[in-house]
Amino acid sequence: MSKTIKIFIFIQIVIIVFLLGIIVDRKVLNNSNIEKNISSEQNDNSHMNNNSKDNFDGRSNDNSSNQSNNTINNLNSSDNLDESQDDKLSENSKFNDIKNNDSSGVVLSNREVNYGALDVPDPSTDDWLFTKDNKIIDSNGNEVWLTGINWFGYNTGTNTFDGLWASDLNTSIQEIANHGFNVIRVPFSAELINQWKNGEYPNANFNQATNDYLVGMDSLQIFEYVIGQCRANGLKLIIDIHSAQTDASGHMINLWYTDKVSVKEYYSALEWMADRYKNDDTIIAYDLKNEPHGKPNEGDKAAKWDSSKDDNNWKYVAECAANTVLSANPNVLVLVEGIEIYPIDIKNNSNFTSIDEKDYYFNWWGGNLRGVKDNPIDIGKYQNKLVYSPHDYGPTVYEQPWFKKDYNFDSLMDDCWRDNWFFIYEDKTAPLLIGEWGGFMKEPNLTWMTYMRQLIKENKLNHTFWCFNANSGDTGGMVLDDFTTWDEEKYEFVKPVLWNNGTKFIGLDHEIPLGVNGISLGEFYK
After folding, report:
1. The pLDDT of residue 75
2. Quick one: pLDDT at residue 115?
3. Global pTM?
4. What is residue 116's three-state secondary structure?
5. Measured between alpha carbons, how far is 509 from 235 in angstroms, rounded to an integer?
6. Are 270 and 194 in contact (CB under 8 A)?
7. Could you tell me which residues are beta bridge partners of residue 137?
8. Cα separation of 523 and 526, whole Å?
9. Which portions of the chain are predicted below pLDDT 50?
10. Which residues of 164-175 are buried (b: 16+ CB within 10 A; e: fewer)?
11. Could you read off the pLDDT of 148-178 as tens digits, one per residue?
12. 175, 291, 319, 337: which one is catalytic?
């Protein structure tokens, strides 16, 4: 090679190195400016919200996020939670000072995210939850707050989440986590679960261009893909038996069985799910049956709550279902909803024989838990796994009697909430999780929704908002019709009752942070 050529190559290399240096310097400078802008924005927001009473205050005792098997086993009985843990509950409740201000601190929502599948961590078993009085706690005795959202589809015949005909699954999961929801309640049909158990896998309905990475997966494989992506995003799941049969209107059926799905098959679906995922705490709870209901004139076709072992006695069936789940996986929570009617005169109508509507208290389907006072759920050694889960809605869903006047927070408490289910919280019988609440951001619904949010916030009630889906006809969704664009007005309304420490959302996983805007439970309680 000639000397001239060598000189020429050397000069080219010098030029390339010089240009690369300029590019790197500019990138570093830009990143520095971005960081300064973010810092400035946080400072500005902190100043703007300096007087907000909605921040989570206080400091907790140091608690390790590593739980031994001995610790978990010792907590299988509520009697093992001693006075020192009662004290720890009080000390560690960082959210005890939340006031009624609608602000949610300075929690920022980072939307500059590169969506796509995240690397999936191995399943863990250190995030199981327990109950103590009216609180849900982790295995260290630290209080947690489940603040989630519903996303249906596995109950409707879609055989996956509704909306994937338009949206990207990975993006939707990440956005739920990034927006601060720490758990998703997933409605299922018992029929679909039993099909999986029997080796049948109905096709899932999704946009194969948008979700090309799901092509070739059956409906069960897609669900297990979802479990992995939820785990990677710090999200937990609640399995909800929404209906016996797979049908978009299946929840309209009163009971947990039909001519097509027997009581035995209902139990079988719960048992199969609980056993299959017993070593994965991504699934933390089972809502045993969505909205059991029925009116007095429907006789044994209506759900009742008494001391009998009748097929339509939800109290007895819920106990059997809870023990079925907990025998397969003793670590999960079980959620028990209410019914629709309850006798006014329990002495003379204890077996629900009257067909006169005047002899009953009425409430929302799944919202009448008056029977807990007379016949509480008894699941023996698993009692510290029990959560009661009423549903409550506003007048746009149905104009209940308590809406037919100038109602307010106090009148709702007196006319509906306290006697139907809030007494369970006040008496410290068990925790509550409002499994469904929500609706359109307009009157006459908005007034009720504001009072419900107040109740949730003042008492730190666990809840799963209804719903993510745009195709919920009587409530609307958290996303618009494209299942991608968020309803920002509705989100800002719900945001104050999403668990946060003032700057970050708080997840339920001890190790994995909740999305890009959250922290782990271990980080919160370190």
Report:
1. 39
2. 80
3. 0.82
4. coil
5. 8
6. no
7. 130, 143
8. 5
9. 17, 19-103
10. beebbbbbbbbb
11. 999 999 999 999 999 999 999 999 999 999 9
12. 291
User: H/E/C letters for each residue in 322-382?
Assistant: HHHHHHHCCCCEEEECCECEEECCCCCCCCCCCCCHHHEEECCCCCECCHHHHCCCCCHHH
Residue 385: count of CB within 10 angstroms of its CB: 27
Structure tokens at 418: 């306290």
| 436 given a catalytic annotation | yes
Q: pLDDT tens digit string along 317-354?
A: 999 999 999 999 999 999 999 999 999 999 999 999 99
Look at residues 179, 175, 183 and name the one whose alpha carbon lies nearest to residue 146.
Answer: 183
Handedness of CA 452, 458, 464, 470 (dihedral sign): positive
Question: Pick from 286, 281, 282: which is nearest to 271 by CA?
Answer: 286
Confirm if 136 and 128 have CB atoms less than 8 A apart. Answer: no
Task: Provide the token pair at 264.
Answer: 């035995």
| Total residue length of the chain | 526
End-to-end CA gap in the chain: 65
Query: Pick the catalytic residue: 175, 271, 337, 436?
Result: 436
Region of 157 on the Ramachandran plot (φ > 0 left; ψ -120 to 50 alpha; else beta): left
Judged by DSSP in three states, 518 sits in strand
